[in-house]
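Worked example 2:
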Amino acid sequence: MVASIVHQLTRKLSDEQIRESAFAPYFVDHTTGVYPTAASGFPWSAAGIGVKGDVICDLTEDMAAEQKARVTYDNILRLSDDPDVNDVIRFLREREIVHFQRFGEALEKAKEKMNQKNVYFTNPAFDR
C-alpha cells in the first residue's frame, strides 16, 4: 500500500522535478512503478520473514514484525505533511497495532495449551 501511495504521489512529476529530487535514482530504475524497497534502497525479499515451525517462535516473530511496521509508519508520519497520505498511514498503523494485540492473544492461548512447567513452553510430546 505504501508503494502504491508513492506511485500516486510521483506519477505526474515533471522531468525537471524528477531531476532535482532524491527520487531520480529510483525513477531511472523503475520510472514511477511500484517496486517495494526499504528506505535504504534494498528490495523487499521473503528472506526477511522468519518462520521456524514452532508456534511460540513464529507468533513472537509475527509480533515483532507488526511492531517494526508500526515504527515505520510512525517515521513516515514524522516526515509527511500530506493529509491524504497521513490518513492512509494512520489507518495502516492502527491495523498493525490490532494485529500485534491479536498475535499476543494467540501467543497466550498457545502457552496455556502447552506444558506450563517447561521454561520454553514447548510441548514435550514433540520430542518423543
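The chain has five helices and no strands. The mean pLDDT is 86.
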